[in-house]
Write a structure and sequence with these properties.
Layout (H helix, E strand, L loop, with lengths): L1 E4 L5 E4 L10 E4 L2 E9 L2 E6 L4 E5 H5 L5 E2 L11 H5 L3 H19 L22 H12 L3 H14 L21 H13 L8 H16 L9 H11 L9 H8 L18 E13 L5 E11 L5 E7 L5 H12 L8 H11 L8 H10 L7 E4 L8 H10 L2 E4 L9 H13 L27 H16 L4 E6 L2 E6 L1 H12 L8 H6 L3 E4 L6 E3 L2 E3 L21 E6 L2 E9 L2 E6 L3 H4 L5 H13 L7 H17 L3 H14 L8 H8 L6 H8 L4 H8 L1
Parallel strand pairs: 8-11, 11-12
Antiparallel strand pairs: 1-2, 3-4, 3-7, 4-5, 5-6, 8-9, 9-10, 13-14, 15-18, 16-17, 18-19, 19-20
Helix pairs in contact: 4-5, 6-7, 10-13, 19-20
């Protein structure tokens, strides 16, 4: 016991706080022990079997099963946060009870003036605790048991034990509604996730129909309409049932577990790959405008965009392999890169962001990251055999994200938003992130083709993204300072102590698609395109030595640049240009060539004649530089629709007037005659 002195100077015997002393019995490690001795922070224990041990006091008291036998549990601290949520009247009543409990315990209230005397019946020196509690019960007009109960709760819980617990009760959000009605509301709310947004009245109607169909009409009691509205609002909180449908689906798709950030300690430890439509309209080779698809690979550790590929349509499997090739081979090491850069510069309709020499310097300084693990989604482009075999060959582990879980690739998803904010919104033809943010006639403002936009994106990644401070990249010695991806790569390489070796230019060719062809006198033919050069001379009409392919030669090609192909020989690679390249002299992809062949066939030309197709292709690329002619396209579409409507037989006068009709519709007449041939026209006049 410990002594406490009252205000009159007389010793008062009070209860001792929880202590541990020699001779006490405790429970520790699922066994009873007796405290033998205390030495500093060490406690010597003797078990019932007589085994002695020495344990640190902090370790002993932190054990889950530690308890001192024969003592009351430690008093709990007052929940100050909950006390602040109570009404003022409830708190004042609890403090008034606390004043009475202090007077019962010490003889004086807590606000007594120094030197005050205890009131009659409350002097601890003259009256016992039971007598003092009886006096307090008589004063307040309650039973002694009530005072004992309040004092016991005050000793254990403090002021919180004196609070009227009726004010602390929590109520169910559904109130007194029938459980069957609550289950029906929740079921209907679940079905609203993927439907169009409706009103509360529609949902209540569906709930009533469901309840009647499940339990019978009149079986489940239905509250008033006002109560039903309150019930629906309580159960739909946070689900956006009557708000944005996109937000509602995203909220429902959110994982149940906590969000854990993705960490990486070295470049290439994890690279996330994903595709999304870019918020900008591009001009196709046919003159029409569509949105472009962007596929990127983002390094988690440095936030470096290792590679980015643009297409006007859905990404194919070959694009993922090409993305891997661009990621692992530096741009200056790729075959024909400098020549293609100079060629692209001559085709740009506007001033370039960087000149050729500056861009080559920037590209050489860009970090090339060799990934250890790539995270992909369930798209066919990434789970195809082409991409998986390339990763297996390079020793890259492929980790597939869970279905409909974009948080597994959160960094790649956030990077798309940054690209739209920092780059895409400054381009002509920007559409905005949704229809409500789109301007008028955005397609008329589109001026960039896919190759030109790819060129601008590559330059912005070199000069803008890689050198710009990123909010998620911090200097460990100066956490308030954000650093750029290039600076983060430099610091992590120094910390790791090694630099992965990148692939060579020949390895870049290995990742390109393969076509097996013969080397004839006229060269190599792929999809009615002829490739030839003097270096093919010793190999013409020769057997490649590969019997499994009947002596054909291995030809690799870039589907985004068909101006040249690469042939593997016993002495190395041979770069073979397209024979009709001087006629076009512009970059074009495989889908552009196929579209040109279709246009040539529609014009009545031979789509197997590469010279004729090359002329159509040159016209396509020329029209693409001037943007789309949507008005002519709409007029032609209306004309084709009118032609499908059968007309009655015309009179001679009507037929005469119809013959002059093409003068009113010149676009229809021009479309029927095809491409003008000057040589044929000259011969016709001669």
């Amino acid at each position: 016991m410990r002594r406490r002195w009252c205000l009159r100077g007389l010793p008062v015997v009070a209860e001792r706080g929880a202590v541990l002393r020699p001779g006490d019995w405790i429970t520790y490690d699922n066994e009873d022990h007796q405290v033998v001795g205390l030495a500093g922070t060490s406690v010597r224990l003797r078990s019932q079997a007589g085994v002695e041990s020495v344990v640190l006091a902090s370790h002993l008291m932190a054990a889950p099963d530690f308890a001192v036998t024969g003592t009351e549990p430690l008093p709990a601290l007052e929940p100050s946060g909950l006390l602040g949520t109570l009404p003022d009247s409830v708190r004042e009543a609890a403090r008034e009870w606390e004043r009475h409990m202090v007077e019962v315990e010490t003889g004086l209230p807590p606000d007594a003036v120094a030197g005050s005397e205890p009131r009659p019946g409350y002097d601890p020196a003259a009256f016992s605790l039971m007598e003092r509690m009886a006096a307090k019960a008589s004063e307040l007009g309650v039973t002694v048991r009530t005072v004992q109960s309040r004092r016991s709760r005050y000793v254990q819980q403090g002021l919180w034990g004196l609070v009227d617990q009726r004010a602390t009760r929590t109520w169910e959000a559904t109130g007194r509604a029938d459980a069957r009605l609550v289950a029906a509301v929740q079921e209907v709310l679940d079905t609203e996730t993927h439907t169009s947004t409706g009103t509360r009245s529609r949902l209540i109607r569906r709930v009533v129909k469901l309840v009647e169909a499940t339990h019978g009409e009149g079986v489940v009691p239905l509250p008033s309409q006002r109560t039903l509205y309150k019930l629906v609002d309580a159960l739909s909180t946070g689900r956006h049932t009557f708000g944005s449908a996109v937000t509602r689906r995203q909220t429902a798709n959110r994982p149940q577990g906590p969000f854990t950030p993705t960490f990486a300690d070295r470049p290439g430890e994890q690279v996330q790959i994903d595709s999304t439509p870019l918020d900008v309209m591009v001009v196709l080779d046919s003159g029409l405008t569509v949105r472009a698809d962007l596929t990127i690979a983002v390094d988690v550790a440095t936030r470096t965009i290792c590679a980015a590929v643009l297409r006007p349509v859905g990404t194919k499997a070959v694009d993922a392999s090409l993305l891997l090739a661009r990621m692992l081979v530096p741009e200056p090491m790729r075959p024909g890169w400098s020549a293609s850069l100079r060629m692209a510069a001559s085709r740009m309709p506007h001033r370039r962001l960087l000149d050729v020499d500056t861009r080559m310097e920037q590209a050489a300084a860009k970090p090339v990251i060799v990934p250890d693990t790539v995270v992909i989604d369930g798209g066919k482009v990434f789970i195809s055999d082409t991409f998986i075999r390339a990763c297996e060959r390079l020793g890259i582990s492929v980790q597939r994200a869970r279905p409909r879980t974009p948080t597994d690739k959160a960094i790649a998803e956030a990077t798309f938003s940054s690209i739209n904010t920092l780059f895409t919104q400054h381009l002509a033809g920007y559409t905005g992130r949704d229809v409500s943010r789109r301007g008028e006639r955005v397609e008329d403002r589109a001026v960039w083709t896919v190759p030109e936009l790819q060129d601008l994106l590559d330059e912005w990644l070199l000069a803008g993204w890689q050198a710009r401070p990123h909010s998620a990249l911090r200097d460990p010695f100066r956490p308030k300072r954000a650093i750029s991806p290039n600076d983060k790569y430099t610091s992590l390489v120094a910390a790791c102590g090694y630099l992965p070796l990148v692939l060579r230019g020949e390895d870049y060719l290995e990742l390109l698609p393969v076509a097996w062809r013969a080397i004839n006198d006229y060269g190599i033919q792929i999809s009615y395109r002829t490739y030839d050069c003097p270096d093919l001379g010793p190999h013409r009409r020769e057997h490649s030595g590969i019997t499994a392919k009947r002596g054909l030669w291995e030809v690799h090609y870039d589907p985004y640049d068909l101006s040249q192909v690469f042939v593997r020989t016993t002495h190395g690679w041979i770069t073979v240009p397209w024979t009709q390249w001087p006629l076009v002299n512009a970059p074009f992809a495989d889908f552009t060539w196929q579209h040109a062949r279709r246009l040539a066939a529609e014009a009545g030309l031979d789509d197997t004649n590469e010279t004729a197709v090359a002329r159509v292709l040159d016209g396509l690329l020329t029209r693409a530089e001037h943007g789309p002619d949507t008005r002519s396209a709409k007029v032609a579409a209306r004309t084709r629709t009118v032609r499908t409507i059968p007309t009655p037989a015309a009179a001679p006068e009507t037929e005469h007037r119809t013959e002059s009709a093409p003068a009113v519709l010149p676009s229809v007449a021009v479309a029927e005659f095809g491409i003008f041939d000057a040589h044929a026209e000259a011969e016709r006049w001669l």
